[in-house]
Amino acid sequence: MEKKGIINNSTTDPNKILPMRYKWAREHYKAGVNNNWTPEEVSMQLDIELWKKQDESGLSEAERRMVLWNLGFFSTAESLTANNIVLAVYNHVTNPESRQYLLRQAYEEAIHTDTFIYCCDSLGLDPDEIYNMYETIPSIKEKDDFVINFTQSVLDPNFKTDSTENIQKFVHDLIGFYVIMEGIFFYAGFAMILSMKRQNKMVGVGEQFQYILRDESVHLAFGIDLINTIKEENPEIWTEEFQTDIIEKIKRAVELEKLYVDDAMPQGFLGLNPQTVKDYVEHVADRRFERLGLPKFYNTENPFPWMSEIIDVSKEKNFFETKVTEYKNSGSLEW
C-alpha cells in the first residue's frame, strides 16, 4: 500500500533531505544545536564541598534524599528515552528532516546519561545504589513501568504503521514517550533541583539540570509537533474513545508523579514543600492537554513562574573563565 505523510512514507527518499516538507523539524534541530553543552563544562567543586559536610552548614537529610531520588530516577529514565528513539521512533518516522532531529535528540540523551555519570563520580556516590533505584524504589519503578507498558507497540520488531489501528497505537506510544515521560515525569524533578539551586545549594547539579530542562523543552516541542502532524494527516485515529483513553492515562501519570514527589520529598525543606511541587505537576499536565488539543482538567496556577525564565533566559558565562556552553553561529543570528 502506498503511504504518504511523516510516518512510513513509501514515496519519500530518506536520504534526500531537500526540499524540506516539515520546517518545524528543522527549527527544532537548530534549537538543539544552539543549546549545545557537555557536563564537564560545569564545575562541581562547590557541590562536592557541600555534599561532604556533615554539620549544620551542609545539606539536611531531606535535601540529600531529594537529590538522590532525582539522580536515581533520571539516570535510568534518560537511557529508556534513548532506547525508544533509536529502536522504535526512528524506524517509523521516515521523513528526513525529522530523522535529523531524532539523531540530534539521541545525542542529547547520551549527554544526559553522561551527566549522571559525572554527578555520581563527582559526589562519590555508589553507582549500584543510584542506577538500581528504578528497581529498589517503588515510586520510581512505578513511573518507569508505566511508561514501558505504555510504549510496548513501538518496541515490537514486527510492528508497522500500516493501518488506522496501528497508527493510533503509534500515536498512543508517542504520547507515553514524549508527553508523559519527558513532559510530565521529568518536571517535578526539574522543579525540586532548580529550587535548591535558587537557594545557592548544589549549584553544579542545578546548572546541569537547567541545561537538561532546556533540551527537554525542545524534545517535548518536537514530540508534540510530531503527534499533531500525524493526527492532521490521519484524522480518523483521533476518536472520542481514543481521546478519553489518553486523558485518563495522563491523569494516572500525574498521580504517579505526585506519589514520587511525596517519596522524594516527604517533609519538604526551606523554600519548597511537596504540595507546591504537586501543584506544578498539575499545571504542567494542563499545558500538555492544551498542546494536544484536549481540555484542561486541573486549572491549577503555576506556583513556579521562574521555571519559564530558566528555559527562556540566556545563561551568561565569563568567557575568560569557562567554556561557552550556549552560543549562536553566524547562520542562526538575527540582525
Layout of SSEs?
Elements: H1 23-34, H2 45-52, H3 61-92, H4 96-123, H5 127-131, H6 133-136, H7 138-150, H8 164-185, H9 187-198, H10 203-233, H11 240-264, H12 274-291, H13 306-312
Helix pairs in contact: 1-4, 1-10, 3-4, 3-8, 3-9, 4-10, 7-8, 7-11, 8-10, 8-11, 9-10, 9-12, 11-12
Report on this structure.
By secondary structure, the chain is an all-alpha fold. It has 13 helices and no strands. It is globular. Helices cover 65% and strands 0% of the residues. It has one domain (44-312): Ribonucleotide Reductase, subunit A (Orthogonal Bundle). Helix 1 (23-34) packs antiparallel against helix 10. The protein has helices at 23-34, 45-52, 61-92, 96-123, 127-131, 133-136, 138-150, 164-185, 187-198, 203-233, 240-264, 274-291, 306-312.
